[in-house]
Amino acid sequence: LVHDDLRTFLDTNLPKEKKRAKMILGVADSRIASAINEHFSISCQHTGVIPELLRGLRLHFPNLVKGLTDQNQSKAQLGLGHAYSRAKVKFNVNRVDNMIIQSIALLDQLDKDINTFSMRIREWYGYHFPELIRIISDNYTYARVVYLMKNRKEFTINHEEELEAITMDSGKTAAILIEKNLQSIMKKNWKQLQWIAGKQRQFSKQ
Fold it and tell me: Interhelix angle for 139-149 vs 160-167, to 10°?
């Protein structure tokens, strides 16, 4: 705990060993007090009035040291804080490996979640537009098409360019539009066929 700089400072400023027996050195930390006592054989105290004296020294420190300004003191305190933090933080050689392992595990979990959500979208939207599953195989493209179309009954040919920008395939775009309109086309044709069939029955009766 007793750094070389602290040892040099105490050797320079403390009296000789014969006079140290009558002295009491005020220290802020109990562990440092014990270490100084072992190295220099001097009585140390960290309780009582010592905290108040140290607080007063910190408050009036720029006045006690010549040439020390508040700005220099702030820089010195910042440098001391950084040095203390670097000394306390230990480098873990396995830390980088742990981050890589966790990242790979996170990517795997995200991939599983995305696949699950994609299957849910295909399943749920498939009840509304089952033909789309056969046309679009890519999950990401399928989700974008679903987001664009929403209700197939309200989707018009005016969105053809947007749809082709998503599918990047004019053939798939045409297939989607055909499948989308196939039901309405069949209904219209079915009405015409019913009308034709009805006319034929009338002629056959005549």
Answer: 170
